[in-house]
């Protein structure tokens, strides 16, 4: 009898141990999930674009392709200046227009004469792709390539031989200047151009002409972890505007075959993505620090202010996107003083607004915790470790997290991050702050994703409560900061 009851006790213990171990397992991913390369891209948060070509000297935005290569004559190019200014501001990668629509190449391509080798720059011995990629390597900044598919210079644009030309140039770029973290395929295509003297309008079938699958495979064979940007990805998608914002509801998912640039309303769709999208293709928000993408002296007084750049930051990075800010060198080949002033001012605002995280290591109470396990404790959201997270049980899609700030603080921003390795989940949440004995609702929002920065009217409070109201699967939050 004694032995039997011991056996019973033991089997109960064994049973309950295995039961709680099973329950304490991490949540299963909800698909699609980001690749390793996409995760690294999300972490970058801010990248810079550099537009530089003959347009800088002809004052055009889209060169016709008939520009004399001699016009490209920057006298003080200093790519170290570009990289240091951008790095100090917080940009982690730089994407260069190695060739824009006009076809002029910033490296001495052996496949064309329409390049820097026939310009006065360094008497034809210059190579700006090399100078920038070297400067990036030195400073540990990632280097990216923009190579316009549309080429208004080439006589054979529109025929199959051009595709061969384009691929040969990709080989030159990826073999000589890598590693390359991102490849930008611009959607602007076809239209009037010089085309080797034909001076006509040409249109191509964007869906078939470039035979993209083969080109992407070629690039992948040289750079397996490359992120491809295009309207439809497959690495990252266009955000649908050139003003640097995504919508407040921003899913990293979308179904690529539902994407057709030019389709009415597509822009709004790109800026929101789709809760049920089949692929992970997050939005990249591109915008220029000036009205144009290329430098024009007449825009020297139209450089976006630090305040405007900060606003853009909140509507891009702050909505789970990545900010790709264009900073075009001037005719000297330097980032202009006015642009530097704005960038520095922008950095100062970032440093000031996000100076002290009031939630760091603060105690958090959740209404529900996965398997009641410490592994998924609410305190994980304030431990500054992005690999730890709070989660609920699989069937629990709503829950509240209460952060005790310890004392009365003035709050302006609440930063939230999901553990996106396991998929993007949260569909709706509110934020309340505790003022005296009352909880006051300060925000009602939808998605979170990699990062969500909620700006509120400054409020004095002792506690912050995040109420998750709906989620695609059990919510998983890795980080919350309060400023
Ligand atoms: C557009 C281009 O036509 C602009 O000139 C610029 O390069 C921008 C980033 O993409 O589609």
Structural class: alpha/beta
In the CATH scheme, the class of the largest domain would be: Alpha Beta
Q: How many strands, what sense, and barrel or not for the largest sheet? A: 8 strands, parallel, barrel
CATH level 3 topology of the largest domain = TIM Barrel
Count the domains.
2
Question: In angstroms, what separates the terminal alpha carbons?
Answer: 63 Å
Strand content: 15-25%
Helix content: 25-40%
Descriptive overview:
- This protein has 2 domains: 36-353, Glycosidases (TIM Barrel), CATH 3.20.20; 364-482, Sandwich (Jelly Rolls).
- The N and C termini lie far apart (63 Å).
- The longest helix has 22 residues, at 2-23.
- It has 10 helices and 19 strands.
- The protein is 25% helix and 25% strand.
- Strand 11 (283-288), helix 9 (306-316) and strand 12 form a beta-alpha-beta unit.
- The chain binds beta-L-fucopyranose (FUL).
- Beta-L-fucopyranose (FUL) binds next to loops.
Write the layout of secondary structure elements.
Elements: H1 2-23, H2 36-44, E1 46-50, H3 55-58, H4 79-89, E2 93-99, H5 128-139, E3 142-147, H6 160-177, E4 182-184, E5 191-193, E6 200-202, H7 212-222, E7 227-230, E8 236-238, E9 253-254, H8 266-272, E10 279-280, E11 283-288, H9 306-316, E12 322-326, H10 337-353, E13 364-366, E14 390-391, E15 399-418, E16 426-435, E17 438-445, E18 452-471, E19 476-482
Parallel strand pairs: 1-2, 1-12, 2-3, 3-4, 4-7, 7-8, 8-11, 11-12
Antiparallel strand pairs: 5-6, 9-10, 13-15, 14-19, 15-18, 15-19, 16-17, 16-18
Residues 61, 186-188, 286, 293 line the site of beta-L-fucopyranose (FUL).
């Amino acid at each position: 009898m004694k032995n039997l009851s011991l056996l019973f006790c033991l089997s109960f213990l064994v049973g309950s141990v295995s039961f709680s171990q099973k329950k304490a397992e991490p949540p299963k991913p909800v698909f699609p999930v980001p690749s390793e390369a996409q995760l690294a891209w999300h972490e970058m948060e801010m990248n810079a674009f550099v537009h530089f070509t003959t347009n800088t000297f002809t004052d055009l935005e889209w060169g016709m392709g008939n520009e004399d290569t001699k016009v490209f004559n920057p006298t003080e190019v200093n790519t170290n200046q570009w990289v240091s200014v951008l790095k100090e501001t917080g940009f982690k990668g730089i994407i260069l227009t190695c060739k824009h629509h006009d076809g002029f190449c910033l490296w001495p391509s052996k496949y064309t004469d329409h390049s820097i080798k026939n310009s006065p720059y360094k008497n034809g011995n210059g190579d700006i792709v090399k100078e920038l990629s070297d400067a990036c390597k030195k400073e540990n900044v990632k280097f990216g390539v923009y190579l316009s598919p549309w080429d208004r210079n080439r006589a054979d644009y529109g025929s199959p031989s051009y595709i061969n030309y384009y691929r040969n140039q990709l080989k030159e770029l990826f073999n000589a200047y890598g590693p390359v973290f991102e490849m930008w395929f611009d959607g602007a295509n076809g239209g009037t151009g010089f085309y080797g003297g034909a001076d006509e309008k040409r249109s191509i079938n964007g869906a078939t002409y470039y035979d993209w699958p083969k080109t992407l495979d070629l690039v992948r064979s040289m750079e397996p972890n490359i992120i491809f940007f295009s309207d439809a990805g497959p690495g990252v998608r266009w955000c649908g505007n050139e003003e640097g914002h995504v919508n407040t509801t921003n899913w990293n998912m979308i179904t690529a075959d539902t994407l057709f640039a030019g389709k009415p309303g597509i822009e709004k769709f790109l800026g929101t993505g789709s809760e049920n999208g089949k692929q992970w293709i997050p939005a990249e928000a591109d915008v220029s620090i000036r009205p144009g993408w290329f430098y024009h002296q007449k825009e020297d007084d139209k450089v976006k202010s630090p305040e405007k750049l900060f606003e853009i930051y909140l509507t891009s990075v702050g909505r789970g996107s990545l900010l790709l800010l264009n900073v075009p060198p001037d005719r000297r080949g330097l980032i202009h003083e006015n642009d530097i002033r704005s960038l520095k001012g922008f950095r100062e605002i970032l440093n000031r607004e996000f100076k002290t995280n009031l939630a760091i290591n603060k105690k958090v109470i959740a209404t529900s915790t996965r398997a009641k396990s410490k592994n998924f404790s609410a305190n994980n959201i304030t431990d500054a470790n992005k690999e730890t997270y709070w989660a609920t049980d699989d069937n629990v899609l709503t829950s509240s997290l209460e952060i005790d700030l310890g004392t009365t603080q003035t709050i302006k921003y609440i930063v939230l991050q999901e553990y996106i390795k396991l998929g993007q989940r949260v569909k709706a949440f509110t934020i309340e702050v505790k003022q005296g004995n009352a909880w006051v609702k300060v925000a009602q929002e939808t998605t979170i994703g990699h990062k969500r920065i909620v700006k509120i009217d400054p409020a004095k409070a002792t506690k912050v409560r995040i109420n998750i109201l709906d989620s695609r699967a059990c919510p998983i939050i890795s980080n919350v900061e309060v400023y």
